[in-house]
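Retry 2 of 3 after timeout on previous attempt. Resubmitting structure tokens to design endpoint.
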């Protein structure tokens, strides 16, 4: 499972939004949500995923930056474990 669009779901703290400012001929703009193009986006996203899935990591799922792998020892548990990373963010 890839989490590419997840980067755009993380809000930037209001006091830090000014640090993302850029100028165009139409005015000055800044990001409110974390764009994929910022330098530290990878580690920020990784930290968010580890925090979110900390109780499941190394048991039912593995997380590496924007990739998640559901794993199971038994075939019948796999469908349940596959649904866990999808349901948890919706519940929060």
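Retry 2 succeeded. Sequence:
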């Amino acid at each position: 499972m890839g989490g590419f669009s997840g980067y755009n779901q993380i809000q930037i703290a209001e006091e830090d939004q000014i640090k993302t400012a850029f100028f165009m001929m139409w005015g000055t703009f800044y990001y409110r949500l974390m764009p994929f193009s910022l330098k530290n986006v990878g580690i920020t996203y990784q930290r968010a995923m580890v925090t979110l899935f900390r109780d499941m990591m190394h048991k039912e799922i593995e997380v590496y930056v924007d990739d998640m792998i559901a794993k199971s020892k038994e075939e019948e548990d796999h469908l349940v474990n596959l649904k866990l990373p999808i349901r948890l963010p919706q519940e929060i």
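Attempt log closed. The chain has a mean pLDDT of 81.
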